[in-house]
Amino acid sequence: MSENAKPESELPKISKPANQALDLSGYYKLEQFTKVTEAELLKLHGMGPKGIRMLKEALQERGLSFAKKPQETK
After folding, report:
1. What pLDDT is attached to residue 38?
2. Which residues contact 36 (CB under 8 A, 6 or more apart)?
3. How far apart are CA 49 and CA 60, in angstroms?
4. Do residues 10 and 30 make contact, with C-beta atoms less than 8 angstroms apart?
5. Which of 6, 11, 46, 67 has the most crowded Cβ, counting Cβ within 10 A?
6. In which region does residue 36 sit, left (phi positive, over 0), alpha (psi from -120 to 50) or beta (all else)?
7. b (16+ CB within 10 A) / e for 23-53
8. pLDDT digits over 29-54, tens only?
9. Are 27 and 12 a contacting pair, CB within 8 Å?
10. What are phi and psi of 34, to 5 degrees?
């Protein structure tokens, strides 16, 4: 693999805009989504409720889930 080659994605095919948003943000593995909330992903241009639902289903199949809402810090 060349140093500029991107890793192969294991994410479900959602929509072209959603997959492109995830790709540009560096998401390639389902395990990465355990560190991010649904709300954070919805901020990505091209990501919508359907994409979140499909990712959630893929995560659940592996016994994983999105990160919980971050706790507020004072």
Report:
1. 95
2. 66, 67
3. 16
4. yes
5. 11
6. beta
7. eebebeebeebeebebebbeebebbeeebbe
8. 999 999 999 999 999 999 999 999 99
9. no
10. -75, -10
Residue with tokens 């992903």: 41
How long a stretch of residues is the chain? 74
Task: Extract the tokens encoding 63.
Answer: 């016994």
Give the percent of the chain with pLDDT over 90. Answer: 70
Six token digits for residue 18: 């959603």
